[in-house]
Amino acid sequence: MAERLLVVEDSKPIATVIKQIAKSLQYEVTIARSLAEVEEILQGDSDFFAATIDYSLPDALDGEAIPCVLSHGIPGVVLTGKMDDSTRQKILSQAVIDYIPKENSQAFLYLKRILQWQKTNHQNSILVVDDSSSARNHVVELLKRRKFTVFIAKNGIEALERLAVHPEIKMVITDLEMPKMDGIELTNEIRKKHSREQLSIIGISGADNGIHSARFIKNGADDFLRKPFCPEEFYCRITQNIESLNNIAQLQIAANTDYLTELLNRRAFFNEAQGRINGYSKRNISYGLAMIDIDHFKKVNDHYGHEAGDQVLRVLALYMRKHFGSGLIARLGGEEFAVLIPGLDEDQIYGKFEDFRRDIAVSMIPTGDQEISIAVSIGAVINSKELLPKQINEADNALYHAKDNGRNQLCVSGMEDED
How far is the CA of 269 from the CAs of 56, 238, 265, in angstroms? Predict the structure, then answer.
């Protein structure tokens, strides 16, 4: 179900722009053009995910619509044509998400970013560390206003315990002055296990000594805030660091993922597979490694075109996820794929590979107005004691044997001559 956005705006052109922005983000939009309309709407229905609020309305010239919306528990972004400091202070003294001056088109681009963040910030977990309950609660309130998932700790020791239990935490906001373990020590301990690419740290201090910001940074923090800080600066620092982490994560995904099938690529498979094999061996878990190749794939491209060939690769990846969902699956290049799966015994592993081959052999893959029938050949090794490169070579040899024997079949290394 789409999140609902209340747009409080008396200018029809601006309301139209905001509506278009919101709809592009899959919001369901309700527009109110006066304070009277806002009160009427909220009297019967206040179930809105967020609101944009024009500071000056025909019947509410001095921001009266802001407390009206906020009193219903609706997070609000204020848009204002006024730029004076008293107006800014009046807006920021209320529990708004943010305020945006109506200066130019950049205002609407920033609004789009805020509305997008409100929908996605719950995916970002932040740990707040402060021994002062009032200071801690203030930061927590600011973060929850932006829909972040928040954890708390009263000191550095508790913070390390929270991080151990919640590896999904992306950011730590820590005060400097705390008992048991202060913010500098905590930052240093966190960096022993979590790199800057994995987790961001923001230090906070109310001390007058200006050297604390440098101490935090030198011990591994990414940013620093001095108390008391204004919500504007706080949100800018938080957002900038979270976006940086998410951008790094997206780059890492892109570097490890095949663009067409969204499976792991060759490099990522080789990086991950040996570790899994070591784990299976230590726990005495049977496992199988298979090389899979589409038979006569060149003929598919030549006869149906490369777009159809791409569709075949994408659909094959879906079948692989269906059959080997608990395993490691990769496209190594072209029409060649690799799978590493655990199982209860050798027969079960063999059966999984064979079930996949049979499923592909009877499938019809839709490509535009045509359907294509394909088959795959599979070469596999089961419970090999060799290192990964040797196992890959053994599986490749079994794959060649399957091809030489007529294709559309499974051959297991060591069993090729048992037919």
Answer: 57, 34, 6
